[in-house]
């Protein structure tokens, strides 16, 4: 912790950055912090409550943050994949952001509880973690903690979905998505949803009806998850933001698994490797696109 | 206001009678996706209800202003357009076990719904609904109803307020509609029961009061004259602009109106929940957006709730339920922020940024 605070103080004092985006103690667990003065550096914390993916705040269209100046951002390994995604897709320039990676041993699924990190309480996304110590960083802090306790919740959910017939799967998602109220909170909280104009907001023509009807909900969430195929970093910000508690992370993970099987690709923290959705190959398997 | 004692058995038989008479009964029930959470839902039997567990995830708003609803159907004909209206008379419904913050919100929103015109769909449902509120026992550190002129024992907007006592409830009959609901139910309450209920009410208040010891209504004037205060540039940095706060808020009531075609010559006009937290909300057809960043959009949320609405309707647009804070993925915290802003208003009362 002191290492992180000292680094933030140094970066702010020597003018390397104008703001350090990190975590501070909050009313319920921790909350994102925007540290703009060296003397605020001791506010920074990192612990098992730090679930938020702070890479979301690097979105160049968040004017209230870009006006603060050059930013350093505290990222876990999983979050570093979102920074890599934004670099890969030319949303940010490498020289304009200072990446502070923290070695991570997992975070809680419900960060508001006081629980220890156990198999039951660990976030479902930590179970398959391969980036506890990311490669994409300018500074890396902390000792590498023990591996997070592996829970099997996500694997069980995916297996259950795969065992369903297509009709059963259709019914499962129709029921889940019937709760969607088309508020688009999932999109706003997502680090990889940064289109200047979302297809859902295009009205000439209106590709997707804006009302929360079963047909439009399915169209919206299907479009979103397909645009996220191979891009989603499984940070679950969408699911945390959803006021209707729809398992959007499960939907995205299901598609991510399909991308992995089909294209041998998973979203990594290496910005130089293009995602399948963003490349054109003359030797593509599919004739229609060659 | 008169009161009665209603036994647990009496309550169960009242609900059973209502359901048998095809009255829609809404109560907090355990959420299917997460049994530790509650949602207000239609119930088919009294056993489904879960009282006194925690605040339901969403407010009662959706039973009066659904997330999407049809205003009318239209069909283009050779000679013009045929309009088919939707019924504005709603089926009777009774809400059991609502929290005072959710119920008070309905009366607050009534004001805007009857301001420039009377919203027939809203009032159709309001008129068809009887509300049985419970003394709140599910407050947590995010609640601040006592700071906004309410409390765990408030009966604003209720027809009946129930206070759980040994063996049943002390029922305060707030309105004639409430008296009618309990006409053939309940018995005379003993003095002991009444005294016990009073103690419970004041105990409940004392659990919420420390959460926000300031009165946000008192800084409406400061807000009005501090539109350009630099504080707005920094208070919403962590806000994603996702609007989850508005979706779960019992008093946020903004909606958008859209036409959706169902075939080449038929369609519906709908209204859908909307939120001032999204950039689309104020986007002009020209492409200009008067609220360019989340700083301006969040300022609008606070200004509307604590200054604009009170100046127009005489009361603040917040009942202190705390859902905005609980649901915020960015960790925004309204009671904490209100505390900070009221302190700022006290220390820097001068008009700034003018």
Q: Proportion of β residues of chain B?
A: 15-25%
Helix content of chain B: 25-40%
Largest sheet data of chain A: 6 strands, mixed
Largest sheet data of chain B: 7 strands, mixed
Radius of gyration of chain B, in Å, reads 22 Å
Tell the overall outline of chain A. globular
Low-pLDDT runs of 5+ residues of chain A are none
Describe the structure.
The complex is a heterodimer of chains A (290) and B (354). Chain A has 290 residues and is α/β, with parallel strands linked by helices. In chain A, 31% of the residues lie in helices and 10% in strands. Chain A folds into two domains: 2-141, no CATH class; 153-278, no CATH class. Chain A has nine helices and six strands. The longest helix of chain A has 16 residues, at 248-263. Chain B has 354 residues and is an alpha/beta fold. Chain B has two domains: 2-209, no CATH class; 216-347, no CATH class. Helix content of chain B is 32%, strand content 20%. Chain B contains eleven helices and eleven strands. In chain B, the strands form two sheets. A seven-stranded mixed β-sheet of chain B has the order 1-9-8-7-6-2-3, sandwiched between helices. Chain B has a four-stranded antiparallel β-sheet with strand order 5-4-11-10, with no helix packed on it. In chain B, a hairpin with a 4-residue loop joins β4 and β5. The interface between A and B is large, with 41 and 45 residues.
């Amino acid at each position: 912790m002191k290492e992180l605070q000292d680094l933030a103080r140094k970066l702010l004092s020597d003018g390397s950055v104008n703001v350090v985006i990190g975590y501070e103690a909050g009313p319920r667990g921790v909350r994102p912090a925007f540290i703009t003065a060296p003397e605020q550096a001791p506010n920074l914390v990192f612990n098992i409550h730090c679930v938020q993916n702070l890479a979301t705040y690097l979105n160049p269209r968040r004017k209230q943050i870009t006006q603060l100046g050059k930013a350093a951002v505290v990222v876990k390994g999983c979050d570093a994949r979102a920074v890599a995604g934004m670099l890969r897709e030319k949303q940010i320039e490498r020289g304009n952001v200072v990446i502070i990676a923290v070695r991570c041993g997992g975070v809680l699924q419900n960060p508001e509880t006081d629980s220890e990190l156990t198999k039951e309480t660990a976030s479902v996304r930590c179970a398959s973690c391969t980036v506890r110590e990311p490669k994409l960083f300018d500074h890396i802090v902390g000792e590498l903690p023990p591996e997070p306790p592996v829970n099997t919740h996500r694997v069980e959910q995916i297996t259950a979905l795969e065992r369903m017939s297509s009709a059963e799967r259709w019914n499962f998602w129709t029921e889940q998505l019937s709760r969607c109220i088309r508020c688009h909170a999932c999109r706003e909280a997502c680090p990889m949803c940064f289109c200047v104009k979302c297809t859902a907001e295009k009205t000439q023509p209106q590709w997707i009806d804006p009302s929360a009807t079963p047909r439009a909900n399915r169209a919206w969430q299907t479009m979103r998850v397909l645009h996220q195929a191979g891009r989603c970093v499984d940070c679950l910000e969408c699911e945390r933001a959803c006021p209707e508690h729809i398992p959007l992370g499960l939907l995205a993970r299901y598609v991510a698994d399909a991308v992995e099987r089909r294209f041998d690709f998973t979203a990594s923290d290496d910005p130089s490797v293009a995602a399948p959705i963003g490349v054109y190959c003359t030797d593509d398997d599919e004739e229609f696109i060659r | 206001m008169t009161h009665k004692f209603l036994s647990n058995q009496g309550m169960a038989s009242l609900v059973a009678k209502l359901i048998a008479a095809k009255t829609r009964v809404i109560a907090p029930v355990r959420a299917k996706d997460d049994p530790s959470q509650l949602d207000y839902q239609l119930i088919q039997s009294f056993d489904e209800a879960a009282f006194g567990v925690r605040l339901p995830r969403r407010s009662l708003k959706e039973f009066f202003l659904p997330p999407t609803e049809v205003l009318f159907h239209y069909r283009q004909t050779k000679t013009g357009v045929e309009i088919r209206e939707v019924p504005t008379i709603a089926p009777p419904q009774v809400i059991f076990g609502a929290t005072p913050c959710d119920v008070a919100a309905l009366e607050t929103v009534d004001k805007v719904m009857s301001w420039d015109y009377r919203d027939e769909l809203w009032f159709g449902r309001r008129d068809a609904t009887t509300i049985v509120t419970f003394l709140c026992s599910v407050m947590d550190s995010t609640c601040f109803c006592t700071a906004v002129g309410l409390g765990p024992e408030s009966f604003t907007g209720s027809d009946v307020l129930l206070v759980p006592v040994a063996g049943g409830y002390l029922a305060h009959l707030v309105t004639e509609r409430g008296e009618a609901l309990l006409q053939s139910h309940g018995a005379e309450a003993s003095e002991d029961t009444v005294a016990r209920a009073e103690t419970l009410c004041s105990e409940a208040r004392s659990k919420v009061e420390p959460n926000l010891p300031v009165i946000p209504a008192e800084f409406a004037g400061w807000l009005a004259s501090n539109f350009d205060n630099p504080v707005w540039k920094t208070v919403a940095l962590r806000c994603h602009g996702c609007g989850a706060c508005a979706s779960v808020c019992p008093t946020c009531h903004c909606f958008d109106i859209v036409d959706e075609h169902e075939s080449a010559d038929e369609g519906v006009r709908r209204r859908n929940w909307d939120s001032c937290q999204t950039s689309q909300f104020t986007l002009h057809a020209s492409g200009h957006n008067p609220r360019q960043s989340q700083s301006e959009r969040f300022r609008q949320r606070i200004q509307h709730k604590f200054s604009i609405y009170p100046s127009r309707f005489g009361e603040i647009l917040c009942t202190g339920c705390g859902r905005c804070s609980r649901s915020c993925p960015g960790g925004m915290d309204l009671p904490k922020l209100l505390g900070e802003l009221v302190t700022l208003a006290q220390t820097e009362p001068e008009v700034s940024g003018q």
